[in-house]
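Researcher: Sequence recovery benchmark, item below. Answer with residues only.
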């Protein structure tokens, strides 16, 4: 599942919660390929958040601080962090509506977020 970012609206940074697998983690620790991307309203990718932490003992600690781009993670609850800057720059995104997309093994979940300056 993909949770609502917080705080919302935000300025200048936000945290995005997400869950891999079901609440009981009945998949036996199967690895999942996970990506999280942020887009502006023109569908242009503006950022890839970094993994902040997770409840899964295997995989999460080694991946903390890495961009959530094709990471291999197991079932559990995780959080990602975005500093509100455009990818590979020190420029903060302008105020407005953004969309974040979580892809787990090819399945997509999407939510909206607001940046308020």
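Model:
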């Amino acid at each position: 599942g993909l949770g609502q970012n917080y705080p919302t609206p935000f300025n200048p940074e936000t945290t995005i919660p997400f869950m891999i697998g079901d609440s009981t983690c009945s998949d036996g620790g199967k690895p999942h390929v996970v990506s999280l991307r942020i887009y502006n309203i023109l569908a242009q990718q503006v950022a890839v958040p970094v993994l902040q932490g997770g409840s899964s003992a295997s995989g999460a600690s080694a991946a903390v601080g890495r961009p959530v781009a094709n990471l291999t993670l197991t079932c559990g609850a995780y959080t990602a962090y975005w500093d509100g800057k455009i990818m590979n720059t020190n420029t903060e995104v302008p105020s407005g509506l953004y969309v974040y997309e979580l892809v787990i093994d090819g399945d997509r979940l999407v939510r909206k977020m607001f940046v308020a300056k």
